[in-house]
From TrEMBL:
Subcellular location: Cell membrane
Keyword Phosphoprotein (UniProt): yes
Residues annotated as transmembrane: 39-61, 320-347
Organism: Paenibacillus violae
Protein name in the entry: Histidine kinase
One Pfam short name: HAMP
């Protein structure tokens, strides 16, 4: 993995610097390509335009209609995608209660008889969750939503209003009799889209909106907990239309699943609406006829139709005469034949070079362009091969230099013992000697010598058993200084003791816990390291889990940057194991917890 990382990095850094061809060769190739492209432009563009200018044949009427239809279909696809994306955002808002355990618990309590058994304070806490916690999530989802309303099964109402949205529901409003409520219940947990309706359930609000509703169900028992609805203003559809380019006089119409009008960029008659709803491809109006291109949004069954006026097409064809048929047909035929011949001649070699460059960019330095002939393109291909040779040599040199430097840095960090640790340890030895604790002094000296011997060994990997022995010696020396202030507990799955990890990977974490977490603390602290193999929910493969925690002073993660030791641990972990991860969680006055997860498939045994 480390080889791939360095190769990819060096390729990205060095390829632009070495991709240079002689200026004279570039100018020669550029002039040649310019001449050929000018010839291609003249053949494929000028000749057909001359035929069109002379007079376009009338049989192109159908062709222009097809092109107009294709453009409309492209526009319709883009518009449908925008609306679908917006409806998906609304849909995601309706699953927000599922993302918060406190909200789901409050809904469960309000939908059962347990609510009456709660104390007033417990009821107040549940109400605060639905009145404040849930709205704080919903308000951050989208700024252009008119608001959401949550209706638990006990008949209560919770509203999340924006600035212009009333937060008071009409007293006694029959929510369960509304079509959108019934539709959400029938959907049984799936999203239900509702067409245009008035917000008559709110005080002093008479806006027309379209909505997305969902029945919230208990994930464990599938029991209904409530209905959530998100309202959106139809004015948002106008904003979407601003980015859509339509022909003059074209109309955009959106109908809901009941064929009711949701939106129209121009006024349409009831008869036109009925024709669109019937699925007709041509709609007749009093003044004009329209060609209809439609598409249905699968999730909501809304129909989006674009109406293109026939008069728009006729205006482009009023100067068409039969005399231009021969010129346009002959020019188009010649252009097509020469276009495919010349474009294949010019474009194919460049496509092959592009493929070679892409393979080189991915790190395949053994690929070469097959040079044919002696023209300008062949010269460019030969220069490309030369560049690949030189680039491969340069990457190889740079890779070895970077790898050597990185290994030297790692060994320096491995062999490093903090001066203040040695200073405190030696002072502890003096204290043990003065108090006559010769046996404990001897054990401490043996522990220090073992640590020094271990750090000076020239090996980059060690068994977990060796790492644990080293940490036990380190913690034993710290106990000489801190005595009863620190308690160390280390546990390890016996099956994991023979697994290999980078040497001294865990010691910086233990050292940080003691120096920054336990030493400043004014009470007895506990330092734990648990190592075991476990399965991750939803994953088939097991991981080696290393959990190191203390109950010291802790810190605020957002205000403290990682030190050199922790950065070194994280970088070595990522370079050694492709799927490994390291997470740090800490809270002020509560302690710090570090968790390392390494896929077992990436770990070797010693």
């Amino acid at each position: 993995m480390y080889t791939y990382f360095c190769s990819a990095t060096l390729s990205r850094d060095l390829l632009p610097a070495r991709s240079k061809v002689n200026r004279q060769e570039v100018d020669t190739i550029r002039q040649s390509i310019r001449f050929r492209l000018s010839l291609l432009f003249f053949i494929t563009i000028v000749i057909p335009i001359v035929g069109i200018v002379v007079k376009l044949p009338s049989y192109y009427l159908d062709l222009i209609k097809e092109q107009e239809s294709s453009l409309l279909e492209g526009t319709l696809t883009a518009l449908t995608f925008d609306i679908q994306t917006y409806l998906d955002d609304l849909e995601r808002m309706t699953v927000t209660p599922y993302l918060n355990n406190e909200v789901m618990l409050a809904l469960k309590l309000k939908s059962t008889s347990q609510w009456k058994l709660l104390t007033p304070y417990e009821q107040y806490e549940a109400e605060e969750v639905l009145n404040k916690t849930l709205p704080s999530y919903l308000k951050n989802m989208r700024k252009d939503i008119l608001g959401t309303i949550l209706l638990p099964m006990d008949g209560s109402v919770y509203i999340t209003p924006p600035l212009s949205f009333s937060d008071q529901a009409v007293k006694g409003f029959p929510f369960k009799e509304q079509d959108w409520y019934i539709k959400a219940v029938k959907a049984d947990g799936n999203v239900a889209f509702t067409g245009v309706h008035k917000q008559d359930y709110l005080n002093n609000v008479d806006s027309e909106v379209f909505s997305v509703t969902r029945l919230i169900k208990d994930p464990d028992s599938s029991r209904p907990l409530g209905i959530i609805m998100a309202d959106a203003d139809t004015v948002l559809l106008d904003q979407m239309m601003k980015g859509i380019r339509l022909s003059k006089g074209a109309k955009v119409v959106i109908l809901d699943d009941n064929q009711q009008l949701i939106y129209a960029n121009q006024p349409i008659s009831g008869d036109m609406q009925r024709q669109i709803a019937s699925g007709s491809r041509t709609v007749m109006d009093v003044k004009d006829s329209y060609t209809v291109v439609r598409e249905t949004i699968s999730r909501s069954n809304w129909v989006i139709a674009i109406l293109s006026p026939e008069a728009f097409i006729q205006a482009h064809l009023k100067r068409v005469y039969w005399i231009g048929t021969a010129f346009a047909a002959s020019g188009l035929l010649i252009a097509l034949i020469l276009y495919f011949t010349v474009s294949h001649w010019i474009v194919t070699p460049f496509k092959q070079m592009i493929q070679v460059m892409k393979r080189v960019q991915r790190g395949d330095m053994n690929t070469l362009y097959r040079v044919k002939g002696n023209d300008e393109i062949s010269q460019l291909g030969s220069n490309l091969n030369t560049m690949i040779y030189k680039l491969d040599e340069l990457i190889d040199r740079e890779y070895k230099a970077v790898l050597g430097k990185r290994n030297a840095e790692y060994r320096a960090l491995q062999s490093q013992i903090q001066p203040h640790f040695l200073y405190n340890t030696l002072n502890g030895f003096i204290g043990l000697n003065r108090t006559g604790q010769s046996m404990q002094l001897e054990r401490a000296i043996l522990s220090l010598s073992g640590m020094l011997r271990y750090t000076l060994e020239h090996n980059d990997w060690a068994q977990l058993q060796e790492e644990i022995d080293f940490i036990n010696k380190y913690c034993g020396l710290q106990l000489v200084r801190f005595a009863e202030k620190i308690q160390v507990h280390i546990s390890c799955d016996p099956d994991a003791l023979s697994l290999l990890i980078p040497k001294l990977l865990l010691q910086p974490i233990i050292e940080n816990a003691i120096i920054h977490g336990i030493e400043p603390c004014d009470h007895s602290c506990e330092l734990r390291m648990d190592i075991h193999m476990q399965s991750i929910p939803g994953e088939k493969e097991e991981v080696l889990a290393i959990h190191i925690s203390d109950n010291g002073v802790g810190f605020e993660s957002s205000k403290v940057q990682e030190g050199l030791g922790i950065r070194n641990v994280r970088e070595r972990l990522q370079l050694s194991f492709e799927g490994a991860s390291m997470s740090i969680h800490s809270a002020k006055d509560q302690g710090t917890s570090v968790q390392i997860l390494i896929p077992l498939k990436d770990v070797r045994r010693g």
